[in-house]
């Protein structure tokens, strides 16, 4: 019977030389054992270009390298939320095709535990998290532990996700979205939600009211099809002109009913600079002003509203 090799009893330099002979997947799994294993693995692991999460038919974690990608796929959905985690399959995709590297692991780690370890090992954020209506098969209460205080740069929520699950993902104490949110499903209590990422893209925002729009603190906003009226837009632009809104740089919206130009521009001292294009000026400092450009045009059966800010 072979004797065990006590890797972590070796001196640091010798241990690092031995670890260089391990593959990426082996090093990641070694890092799960202890803090010493984590620090030792970090010193020799190659950092991926992106860390992606997919909840779409399966729970998957992707590490994208320059010429290949590693995919952790959790095999049993029922074990995703258990305290001991569940078995998973590790697959490598490259120019040479697909290869299954490992079917499961002797120590069972949960979906969130592995994500947190990836974040610790590689010190990169989750680049994109994509969620489909598949998540609706899980109870909201048990899902909460998977997303609490998880930082992601971009979140994409697909169609037909139950409103309660959309709310769970967008609660401030859960996912922390820094760059872009793509929202194709409708939340159930949108008045309680906060949107502070750089870019917000909504498919249908019929649920959005003027008060909620005024609380959005994104630089770029695409509301998709909206029910906001000409009077709503007029009030929004007056709020912007009064220096109450400082974050917005571009705002887009569409409507099948269209908007009335006279009502929309009433009291704004707008100047027409081109066909269907107007400018309004906001004075922020005695010697400094900001220009807001309004573009309004009708195509076929829909009207398009674009408001852009030039500093």
Give a quick set of tags describing it.
single chain, 311 residues, alpha/beta, 16-stranded mixed sheet, 16 strands, 34% strand, F-box_Sdz-33, F-box associated domain-containing protein, Zygotic_Embryogenesis-Asso
Give the gist of this structure:
Residues 197-242 form the Sdz-33 F-box domain. This protein is of the alpha/beta class and 311 residues long. It is built from nine helices and 16 strands.
Spatial shape: elongated
**Oligomer classification:** single chain
Global mean pLDDT: 85
Low-confidence stretches: none
Query: N- to C-terminal separation?
Result: 74 Å
Total helix count?
9
How many beta-strand elements? 16
Query: Roughly how many Å is the radius of gyration?
Result: 25 Å
SSE series = HHHEEEEEHEHEHEEEHEHEHEEEE
- Binned strand content: 25-35%
Give the biggest beta sheet.
16 strands, mixed
Helix-strand category: alpha/beta
Task: Tell me roughly what share of residues is in helical segments.
Answer: 10-25%
Q: If you had to describe this structure to a student in words, what would you say it looks like?
A:
- The protein is of the alpha/beta class.
- It is built from nine helices and 16 strands.
- A hairpin with a 3-residue loop joins strand 1 and strand 2 (59-64).
- Helix 2 packs antiparallel against helix 3 and helix 3 packs across helix 4 (111-122).
- It is elongated and about 85 Å long.
